[in-house]
Write a structure and sequence with these properties.
The protein is of the alpha/beta class. It is 38% helix and 16% strand. It has twelve helices and twelve strands. The protein has an eight-stranded parallel beta barrel, surrounded by six helices. A two-stranded antiparallel sheet has the order 1-2. A two-stranded antiparallel sheet has the order 3-4. Helix 1 packs across helix 2 and helix 5 packs parallel to helix 7. The radius of gyration is 20 Å and the shape is globular. The N and C termini lie far apart (55 Å). 41% of the residues are buried.
């Protein structure tokens, strides 16, 4: 036992076999590797969550070989609290394992009042990175992302700001998030010109959300050697068995309508979910496992961000790695159902 913040808690000893069942992929053409599944801090790590539960989630993930913790400056609620809580967890359990972890953060959405707390200016990004490092209690993050394109700031300024952040030792690599095809192409070209190690684009991607495919960003990144990490792979919980028989009282729709509203669960959508669940059952998987496997099926996505409110969900999600191969018939059926 150890004394932590005034109470005795069990000392964390990571599982010895933590890397045995995880798969790791190179991020584009870089030397960095991501675990096939990474832990996202978008939900369940803010001021409305239990610290002991958050700590348990991180321990369980690391024990499964999930070596990447993905954050942003405005994750909460309230803004900044996910990073603060992550910093507490890192200090409590992972200081001696820092070099086994990839810790990332982002800036690009509103963070503080006034003209300098949003978007993609050099001033905002550098200040945000410094604030994130302070909250995390770290000297550097492994990747610092621009969280979304800024229509009013020249992309050259944003990329130069990321280069300064890397060159100054605040981050090892740079990333972009929510960049569409043309924006991604331009970012890649600027990064090459200024020798910025831009290695990854983070995009929303699921069976129900395929804009990364239809607009061509997925293929572009594969051709240009830029990694892709997918977020919202379960469509905020729709691609699970949670809603097969209605809306549970403890579900995200019932408890927190910010990101998934009851109106999203239409009779047509519910029918799609049930049909997809049938395919998953035939594959010997849960719907969530199949949805994660589907994203990893062709090797063009190097990692999938999973969220969790319970350690058991992480253990279940990792099972998807047992089968990421699909038949042509399965893929055709999934395509047809998702377009109904």
């Amino acid at each position: 036992m150890e004394l932590l913040e005034g109470k005795f808690v069990p000392v964390y000893v990571p599982a010895q076999n933590r890397y045995d069942n995880m798969v790791y992929h190179h991020v584009g053409r870089s030397g960095l590797q991501f675990p096939a599944l990474s832990l996202g801090f978008w939900h369940n790590f803010g001021s409305n969550a239990s610290f002991d539960q958050m700590r348990s989630l991180c321990r369980t993930a690391f024990d499964c070989g999930v070596t990447q913790f993905d954050l942003a400056n405005n994750y909460g609620p309230a803004y900044g609290t996910a990073e603060e809580n992550c910093g507490r967890i890192l200090k409590a359990d992972f200081l001696s394992h820092r070099d086994e972890l990839v810790i990332t953060s982002k800036a690009g959405y509103d963070m503080w009042k006034g003209p300098y707390g949003n978007w993609g200016s050099r001033k905002y990004l550098v200040a945000s990175c410094d604030q994130s490092l302070k909250r995390l209690g770290l000297d550097y993050v492994d990747i610092f992302y621009h969280h979304r394109p800024d229509p009013d700031t020249p992309l050259e300024e944003t990329m130069e700001a990321l280069k300064f952040i890397v060159d100054s030792g605040r981050a090892l690599y740079a990333g972009i998030s929510n960049y569409k095809k043309e924006q991604t192409q331009k970012a890649i070209e600027i990064a090459r010109d200024i020798h910025l190690p831009l290695i990854v684009n983070q995009r929303r991607y699921s069976i129900f959300e395929r804009s990364i495919e239809t607009e061509g960003t997925k293929d572009l990144c594969a051709e240009e050697g830029l990694g892709i990490i997918a977020f919202s792979p379960l469509a905020q919980g729709l691609l699970t068995n949670r809603y097969l028989n209605g809306i549970p009282a403890d579900s995200r729709i019932a408890k927190d309508g910010r990101f998934l509203k009851e109106s999203a669960l239409t009779p047509e959508k519910l029918n799609q979910i049930r049909e997809l669940n049938e395919i998953a059952t035939q594959r010997g998987q849960t719907l969530a496992e199949m949805a994660l496997s589907w994203i990893l099926r062709d090797g063009k996505v190097c990692s999938v961000l999973i969220g969790a409110s319970k350690p058991e969900q992480i253990l279940d999600n990792v099972k998807c790695l047992k089968n990421t191969t699909f038949t042509e018939e399965e893929l055709a059926r999934i395509d047809a159902i998702s377009k109904e």
